[in-house]
Amino acid sequence: MSAPSDEVRVHRVEDRAAYDANSINAILDAGWVAHVGAVRDGKPVVIPMYYVRDGDSLLLHGAPATGTIRRGKGADVCATITLLDGFVLARSAFHHSMNYRSVVVIGTAEPVEDQAEKAAALHLFVERMVPGRQAMIRPNTDKEIQGTGVLRLSLDNASAKVRVGDPIDDDEDYELPIWAGVVPITDVFGDAIGDGRSPDGVNVPPNVSDLRTT
Question: With pLDDT > 90 as the criterion, what percentage of the chain qualifies?
Fold first, then answer.
């Protein structure tokens, strides 16, 4: 594990930090949305974007004319991913908190220009959402591939920070007649809802309905 740069080093509650690939990748693979920050016309702008991890990098995609894709090429960006796991309710307002898992990545967003590499990246976006989906749908046309911008952001400069566990109250407050603890927060998939345009006899495929049980 290489030493983290000061850009991503956690300075507040350092014992909650992790810099190894396994810790970072586990959080990235459990998340769906990265908030990507860049400088636009001299001002910071943060945009939520669907992402996928490809080995030791993040892939981001959007319309080529989108500000983050257009201006992000070759520019320094910051991507943050946060998974909220629970409300931490303490005996005082000061010690209320949240349990979470988060990752911060800072680096240069490199455009994916090669047509075959871009097609492979777009394949990953679909497969990350629903494994096996790509084989069931119409393939992308060359025009569609060309009309999609893809950025690759290395994970070389990244850090994770995680809070777990109960509230941490002042010693004298534990005797107060106040309930304290954690309210868990989880994400669940609902039942698939068709768009009403599929021909008769076309049912929800198992890999889509199975998301309900994941």
Answer: 84
